[in-house]
Amino acid sequence: MFQIDLTSRKPIYEQVMDKFKQLIIKEILSADEKIPSVRELATQLTINPNTIQKSYRELERQGYIYSVRGRGNFVSNKIKKVDEEKLNKLKQQVQNSLSELIYLGIEKEELIELIEKTYAMIKGGSRDD
């Protein structure tokens, strides 16, 4: 399904969460699609099942997945609205980065091309990735 970087400074449970978020946002995993059980994924990635369980709990708390007792975990069909504070913080970071790029001499057309390319890369993902 995906790989975990065991040498990364980022905790493994966060890496698992990030990978699932990417798959959900890119719509590689569709709404109501079953995701691997804790045991299956732990075996597949050769990591502790408690780590996977922690990731799944946090993904459920954030609204990315939901669990059905006795059936497993599924991709949520309604991802909760993004935290307004986090959204504003990210917008500010983008604005700061854009300001720096403009200061360094990047042209407007190049900025627009960069944004469009990034958008296409994220939204244009396929199930074959």
From TrEMBL:
Where does the record place a coiled coil? none
What's an example of a GO molecular-function annotation for this chain?
A: DNA-binding transcription factor activity
**InterPro entries, per this entry?**
Tscrpt_reg_HTH_GntR, WH-like_DNA-bd_sf, WH_DNA-bd_sf
Q: Which SUPFAM superfamilies match?
A: Winged helix' DNA-binding domain (SSF46785)
Q: Which Pfam families match?
A: GntR
Keyword annotations for this protein, in alphabetical order, are: DNA-binding, Transcription, Transcription regulation
UniProt domain HTH gntR-type: residue ranges: 10-78
**In which domain of life is the source organism classified?**
Bacteria
**Which protein are we looking at?**
GntR family transcriptional regulator
Task: Name the source organism.
Answer: Marinisporobacter balticus
